[in-house]
């Protein structure tokens, strides 16, 4: 990563747009679900309600994670974004997937239900698809622009990105568009066959879709919360840059951790040239840190620790972590 991107403002725009769209869609779907008696549309209404709660949680994440470091939190509050994003994933499952499963099982195994006013359902699902497409397009544009800025492919960047807000919105909106297609299919097959079984199966499919999205997002934020390594490409570049320093004989170990979006903590254990004086060693550490910050703006805190490469205890710990890399 050669240049830090000021994506916080765009992330806020993406989340606010998604919240507004989902709130409007939730109301429309709820009315259409009651009028048509469609389990799939009611499941989609619950889906949009869950998405609305999710966007509210993501806005909280953006606001609280931006607070500056203080005495109690010397590394800042960046990880709050991961915590609130994890709650957003739980919200998707608890209020979206579970309701869709309930409606699906009730319709599939319960008494056959008569369909009423299917045209209302088609119109609402069509309007919802258009509105969701607007939100999805904004999220897609942000992911595409950030992936290009970081020199990565679209899906590769989405996989390694340390900004869970835009990833959550993009996956939510993608799931919403797929869910609308499923609801439309369930509604149409119910009308064609006269059997509510199709409506129930569509609702179950929507529940599975939401559960999958919730799992992916929960796993992503879990890794970031417990101290995930920074982008491996950046770590390798840092290792190479440190190895090129004239004062460094060997890079013994590098520890990195994402402490917030576009914020990385680095601890590098280096075997310096034994001929360096204490003053020269201090100057080297200051210069190397400054050069690293210039080349890798995501580095928020840098710790350079002089260590001998032959220390058996340190070597054992490195081998336990990475294996024999020789």
TrEMBL record:
Q: What name does the UniProt record give this protein?
A: Cation diffusion facilitator family transporter
**Native species:** Lentzea albidocapillata
Source organism superkingdom: Bacteria
User: One GO molecular-function annotation for this sequence?
Assistant: monoatomic cation transmembrane transporter activity
Q: Which UniProt keywords apply?
A: Membrane, Transmembrane, Transmembrane helix, Transport
Q: Name one GO biological process term.
A: zinc ion transport
Tell me where it resides: Membrane
Q: What is the lineage of its organism?
A: Bacteria, Bacillati, Actinomycetota, Actinomycetes, Pseudonocardiales
Keyword Membrane in the entry? The reply is yes
């Amino acid at each position: 990563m050669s240049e830090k991107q000021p994506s916080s403002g765009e992330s806020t725009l993406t989340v606010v747009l998604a919240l507004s769209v989902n709130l409007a869609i939730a109301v429309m779907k709820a009315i259409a679900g009651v009028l048509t008696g469609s389990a799939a549309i009611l499941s989609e209404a619950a889906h949009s309600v869950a998405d609305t709660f999710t966007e509210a949680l993501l806005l909280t994440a953006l606001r609280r994670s931006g607070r500056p470091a203080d005495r109690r939190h010397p590394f800042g509050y960046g990880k709050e974004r991961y915590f609130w994003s994890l709650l957003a994933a739980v919200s998707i499952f608890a209020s979206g997937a579970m309701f869709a499963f309930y409606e699906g099982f009730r319709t599939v195994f319960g008494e056959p239900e008569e369909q009423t006013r299917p045209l209302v359902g088609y119109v609402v699902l069509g309007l919802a698809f258009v509105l969701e497409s607007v939100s999805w397009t904004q999220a897609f544009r942000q992911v595409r622009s950030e992936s290009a800025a970081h020199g990565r492919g679209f899906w590769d960047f989405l996989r390694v990105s340390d900004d869970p807000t835009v990833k959550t919105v993009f996956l939510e909106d993608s799931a919403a568009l797929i869910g609308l297609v499923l609801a439309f299919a369930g509604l149409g097959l119910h009308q064609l066959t006269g059997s509510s079984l199709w409506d129930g199966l569509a609702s179950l499919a929507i529940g599975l879709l939401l559960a999958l999205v919730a799992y992916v997002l929960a796993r992503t934020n879990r890794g970031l919360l417990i101290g995930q390594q920074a982008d491996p490409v950046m770590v390798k570049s840092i290792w190479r840059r440190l190895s090129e320093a004239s004062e460094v004989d060997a890079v013994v170990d590098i520890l990195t951790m994402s402490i917030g979006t576009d914020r990385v903590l680095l601890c590098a254990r280096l075997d310096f040239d034994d001929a360096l004086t204490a003053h020269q060693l201090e100057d080297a550490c200051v210069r190397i840190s400054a050069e690293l910050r210039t080349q890798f703006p995501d580095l928020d805190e840098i710790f350079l620790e002089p260590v001998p490469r032959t220390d058996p205890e340190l070597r054992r710990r490195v081998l336990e972590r990475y294996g024999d890399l020789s």
